[in-house]
Amino acid sequence: MTDEELKALVAGLAAAQDRTDEQLAKTDAQLARTDARLNKLAEMYSDDGPSLREVAKEFFYNSLEADPMLGGVRFDYICSIGTRSHAGISDYFDLLLVNGREVFVMEVKHKAHENDLERLLGEKAPNFRHLFPEHAGRRQRLALATFHIHDDLKKSALARGVTVLQRRGDVIETFAA
Fold first, then answer.
1. CB neighbours of residue 114 within 10 Å
2. Between residues 120 and 48, which one has the greater pLDDT?
3. Is-above-0.70 flag for pTM?
């Protein structure tokens, strides 16, 4: 390779590098615009606000606090529990309604699914007995409170002894088991 050919090759490489640098700068600018759009969308749809389940839980809690009656039975108090753990068992409980004779263990969902009913019956009910020995003398009842439930699931819950609470406008509609 001659000096002239080498100089032409180096000049060509330098020009190609300049074009590559220009393209990278354009790509960086486009990425910055995309990042800004994604950040704006993340702000709009962030988890900072309440989840649909939290909204449903607040609705049922407030409604039952104002009128602690379920299935024709008056309750002394309602409480929002959260997680309880003991002896290797841990579970999350949404709401409890308690009086001297009964305790309602209430699972709250925005939209109820079959697996919610199965988990309430198969896991939460037995776990409640272990995690809340202070309620051992009370009849344990189960409830599924939801803004939306399919008719088949409602029928299945009722047939299995689970009370269903469903939102109807601004009030609760109760179907006793």
1. 12
2. 120
3. no
